[in-house]
Every structure is written in C-alpha cells, then in structure tokens.
Amino acid sequence: AQRVTQPEKLLSVFKGAPVELKCNYSYSGSPELFWYVQYSRQRLQLLLRHISRESIKGFTADLNKGETSFHLKKPFAQEEDSAMYYCALRSRDDKIIFGKGTRLHILP
Amino acid sequence: SAVISQKPSRDICQRGTSLTIQCQVDSQVTMMFWYRQQPGQSLTLIATANQGSEATYESGFVIDKFPISRPNLTFSTLTVSNMSPEDSSIYLCSVKTVGGPNEAFFGQGTRLTVV
C-alpha cells in the first residue's frame, strides 16, 4: 500500500529553536516525496521535493530509505513558519497522496 | 508553473441542491485532479479528470455524486450533487503540467458550506 504518515497533528516550537516535522511513508520501490505548505488563507504550495535536494526558506528534508522517512527540518524556527505542513508521495499512477498534515505553531 | 483559477471561491448551499465548481488553467496540463479537504482533515483525492472521457474515481467516490467534466486540456468542472451537510468541505483542483517540474499545482479551493 502507498501511504504517508505524519504522527504529529500539532507541533509547537519556540522561535529560534530547531524544528523537525516527521513523515514516514509506505511504498515499494523508489518513492518521489514532497513537502507542501499552506499558510493561513493561502493556497497549498510546494515547499520542497526530495529529488532536487534543495533548501527552501531554510527547510531541508532528507529521504532515508532504511527508515522510510522524509522528515522536514529547520535549524532555527521563525514566526512566519507557522503554517500547515503536508508530506506527500507521488503514486505510480501520478497521483499525489497526502499525509494528514502537521500544524506548526511558532511561539514568540 | 501553472496558474489555476477556481470558481466560486466559496458558497453556501441548501441541502438537496447541486453546485458546479470550475477549474481553469492558464496552460495545457497533462493531468487534472479534484481533491476534498474536510474540516480539520487532510486532502483526499476524489478523482482524476480525463480529457474527453469519463473521470477515474477513487474508492468511496462515485460519478453520480461527483460528476466531472474535462472538455479540453485547460478546463474541468466538478459537481457536488444532492448535497448534504457532510459535503461541507474545501474542494481543490490540482494539475500536473506538460513538461516543466514534476510537481502538482493547486487552485485556491472552493469552500462549500451546506445548510
């Protein structure tokens, strides 16, 4: 089965502290994984994808095939990072399968 | 990238009625999808809109309830039929573009409230 699991519904982090949003997946073969972000009152947008190995807004995510994880990390949280974050997987038939999402709340 | 316009952006409807949501893209796209995001939930794929043929529905979604059209490569509609309060959700159109980055782009969504 192709599945994405985000175990945390809500994560509260102090400004300046490190952030890690967890994501685990179930997929046989080589997955294509993404992180999407939805800021308040804005549309869902792509944050980053594992194949490009880029860093966007200070966020990075490394695919760990052994642990079937794709955790999102940022060394120093900023208030503008408060948003809903979705981990997602591209299925074999090109659909995007989303996790349940984690709401990140940055405390001042 | 692709710019997606969804109409209406929100609506309040009476139960038993139907609402058609439009999705217009500014460029030709290979695939168009419709998602539902119920309050406090993640995005659930309803169906893949196929150009010139019947949509492909996911488990739990049927054509009679969610008829979909896609007459060309840049336009699709989703109808929510015989609505009940349980249909209150955000409905999102998503596309995958021809060439370009292999990612999905999303419309701003249609917030539907059924009373």
Explain what you see.
The complex is a heterodimer of chains A (108) and B (115). Chain A has 108 residues and is mostly beta strands. Chain A has strands at residues 3-5, 10-14, 19-21, 24-26, 32-38, 45-49, 60-61, 72-74, 83-90, 96-98, 102-107. The radius of gyration of chain A is 13 Å and the shape is globular. Helices cover 0% and strands 53% of the residues of chain B. Chain B is an all-beta fold. Chain B has strands spanning 4-7, 10-13, 19-25, 29-37, 43-49, 56-57, 68-72, 75-80, 89-97, 104-106, 110-114. Chain B is globular. In chain B, strands 2, 4, 5, 6, 9, 10 and 11 form a 7-stranded mixed beta sheet that branches. A 4-stranded antiparallel beta sheet of chain B has the order 1-3-8-7, with no helix packed on it. The mean pLDDT of chain B is 91. Chain A binds chain B through residues 32, 34, 42-46, 49, 51, 86, 90, 94-101, and chain B through 31, 33, 41-45, 48, 92, 94, 96, 102-109.
Overall 3D form of chain A: globular
Spans of chain B of at least 5 consecutive residues whose pLDDT stays below 50 are: none
Strand content of chain B: over 45%
Element string of chain B (H = helix, E = strand): EEEEEEEEEEE
Low-confidence stretches of chain A: none
Mean of residue pLDDT values of chain A: 91
